[in-house]
Amino acid sequence: MAFLTNLVNMSFLQHPSLRRCIHVSAVVNKVQSGRYKPTPKRTLRLTYEMANPPHYIAHRKSWNSWNTSNIKDGNRPAETALEDVFIRRFMAGTWHNLFVCEVIIKRQHNIIRIAGIVDRSIHPSKMYFLTGYTEEFLSRYLQCIVKLEIATGYKHETTFKYI
């Protein structure tokens, strides 16, 4: 017992940075992220993918990025995530308000396939130009083959429910 008393009274334990403290707080089980807040007049349009909460990923809905870099000993996980963010922002800027669903990015070997549904209101010649421009720009920037898999449809066709 005397040994413990002497150990506590030692000078190196009195310095605040060398002591370990435990802080306990109440657990807040509030699950808020990835859920959409209802509007008073139920005007917010949700697709099937948006209507499912995040804990249904791999059960009812799928991932928006398909790659194998996040597995153990995968190549370039940080660069892949950064490239996916760049691709999504580039697509949102180039195809401004034309995608009616999420952009899906699939990586296979040295090929990046970008899939999505585009609003049918765009003229076909403009869509061909945007497709070629996007494939060429991203292929040169990412230094690999980029292919766009575009389907057309109307917004009301992709609406799952209104909240």
UniProtKB/TrEMBL annotation:
Tell me what this protein is called: 28S ribosomal protein S24, mitochondrial
Q: What is its main location?
A: mitochondrion
| Intracellular or extracellular location(s) | Mitochondrion
**Pfam families the UniProt entry points to:** MRP-S24
Superkingdom of the organism of origin: Eukaryota
List, alphabetically, the GO terms of the cellular component aspect: ribosome
State the family it belongs to: Belongs to the universal ribosomal protein uS3 family.
Keyword Ribosomal protein listed: yes
**UniProt entry keywords in alphabetical sequence:** Mitochondrion, Ribonucleoprotein, Ribosomal protein, Transit peptide
